[in-house]
Amino acid sequence: MSLLAGRTAVVTGSAQGIGYAIAEAFAAEGANLVIADINGDAAEAAALQLGIGSRAIGVACDVSSGADVAALAQAATDRFGSLDVFVNNAGITRDATMRKMTEDMFDQVIAVHLRGSWLGTRAAAAVMREQPGGGSIVNISSISGKVGLMGQTNYSAAKAGMVGLTKAAAKEVGFANVRVNAVQPGLIRTPMTEGMREDIKEARLKEIALGRMGEATEIAQAVLFLASDMSSYITGAVVEVTGGRHM
């Protein structure tokens, strides 16, 4: 039997990149999908691209807006009748050293990553705790939240905050069989990292025990594990998918 057959999953920021790879993995395992993205047209196109017909819809959502996130959770239950998996993946970067970083650059990253994940976790848990089967929430943090990276005081702070959020939320909603976990990706092959300067890329590759970049599909498989019953006794955990970087 497929791992997510008959279940409904919401993935934020999933019109492209890692989020879309997660949606593909979920779709292959039988899930109904709500593709959420700040660009509604891109979300609808991605839902169509999954090739699962009426099992996927696209929804415009600004994850920093409580009203948008509440409407997103409602859209899932209205269309499919349940909300079983919620992945807080949406993110942005506004990299700069502290000397050059503006307050707006800091606030924007915190709003999308940390506030957005809190809003998503709150909205999803409110639905899941009333369902007989509970549910699974997965927050996409980053290895930057573990070690801190130069030029990312905003991003590292937000991603570290997501770890604390994950653990605190897991304690609050575990009684209702709602599990909350986090994944910390390392250096993953995306259009953004592919554009990295070669000298910087080579330096980062030297930090990785497996000696290569990860693929978005490898993050997706870790998220699928946490979303499914394979991880039924795991909550409040942080899974590093880094190839052995920053151990």
TrEMBL record:
InterPro entries: KR_dom, NAD(P)-bd_dom_sf, Sc_DH/Rdtase_CS, SDR_fam. One of its GO terms (biological process) is fatty acid elongation. It is an enzyme of class 1 (oxidoreductase). Residues 7-188 form the Ketoreductase domain. Transmembrane segments: none annotated. One of its GO terms (molecular function) is 3-oxoacyl-[acyl-carrier-protein] reductase (NADPH) activity. SUPFAM superfamilies: NAD(P)-binding Rossmann-fold domains (SSF51735). SMART domains: PKS_KR. NCBIfam families: PRK05653.1-3, PRK07231.1. Belongs to the short-chain dehydrogenases/reductases (SDR) family. This is 3-oxoacyl-[acyl-carrier protein] reductase. The lineage of its organism: Bacteria, Bacillati, Actinomycetota, Actinomycetes, Micrococcales.
